């Protein structure tokens, strides 16, 4: 008796009247391969998904650890003294860089953003942008230069004057901290980043266990499939020997 | 006793070895000859994959020691 196996497809099942043993399915090697591939397909999708999750966790952990390292570089008290604003700017940039390293919509990036916002608000971090005095005079200087150039073209035989506008100097940005960390404030901030890193690590370890489990189960499937084929080989060999003895 | 950590690279290598094992087994078969395989084995193979799917979805580990070819 030949029987159909769910998922094997019509091409792989049975040859009516083929004389096969009860409880067996007679299929072509290609069909058996296709059957195994179909069965392994979902498993492989899960393995791929878990591997991608592992890599994302690694990127998240690296990004958060970079922030943690930067924040901890300012000691237990955090940004303080006359350079406090610049130091806090370094922290803010570190957080922004970490966010930029992660994909859009990443939950860890969102947590970092929230942490950065809280840090900025808690310590009163502000950026003052002051245009340089030269920049304020630049429009007038450029207008004068343009007028001179226009008039010079009226003099016959004279070459037109260059009218390139004067370069505008960049504005000056100053960073200020109105409420520098005190007591254990900074420790709380660095602990929050550290906890985020620990959470990512814990989740990644769980994901890794799941991934290992999937690979182990895939190994069982592969052994099952190869075992079927090797038994088939043995059967054929035994059959050939039996025929040879007749 | 310390246990060495398993890396993603280790798992990728294991997957490649599994594929090679499967390919070698199929390569040993004569493609022109139909083969008879136990229906129960085919079902078991499907069940192992199906169980892996559901176990992965629930996040629980499984003991597959009883599964033998």
Name some characteristics of this structure.
heterodimer, A: 246 residues, mainly alpha, Four Helix Bundle (Hemerythrin (Met), subunit A), two-stranded antiparallel sheet, 7% strand, disordered N terminus, B: 69 residues, 6% strand
Give a brief rundown of this model:
The complex is a heterodimer of chains A (246) and B (69). Chain A is mainly alpha-helical. Chain A has helices spanning 29-72, 84-101, 107-123, 133-152, 185-245; strands at 24-27, 125-130, 172-177.
Describe the structure.
The complex is a heterodimer of chains A (246) and B (69). Chain A has helices spanning 29-72, 84-101, 107-123, 133-152, 185-245; strands spanning 24-27, 125-130, 172-177. Chain A has 2 domains: 10-131 and 171-236, Four Helix Bundle (Hemerythrin (Met), subunit A), CATH 1.20.120; 132-170, no CATH class. Chain A has 5 helices and 3 strands, in the order βαααβαβα. Helix content of chain A is 65%, strand content 7%. The relative contact order of chain A is 0.12. Chain A has a two-stranded antiparallel sheet with strand order 2-3. Chain A is mainly alpha-helical. Chain B is mainly alpha-helical and 69 residues long. Chain B has a domain at 8-47. Chain B has helices at 8-27, 39-58; one strand at residues 35-38. The longest helix of chain B has 20 residues, at 8-27. Chain B is flat, with a radius of gyration of 16 Å. Classes of the chains: A mainly alpha (246), B mainly alpha (69). At the A-B interface, strand 1, helix 1 and helix 5 of A face helix 1, strand 1 and helix 2 of B. Strand 1 (24-27) of chain A pairs antiparallel with strand 1 (35-38) of chain B, so a sheet runs across the interface.
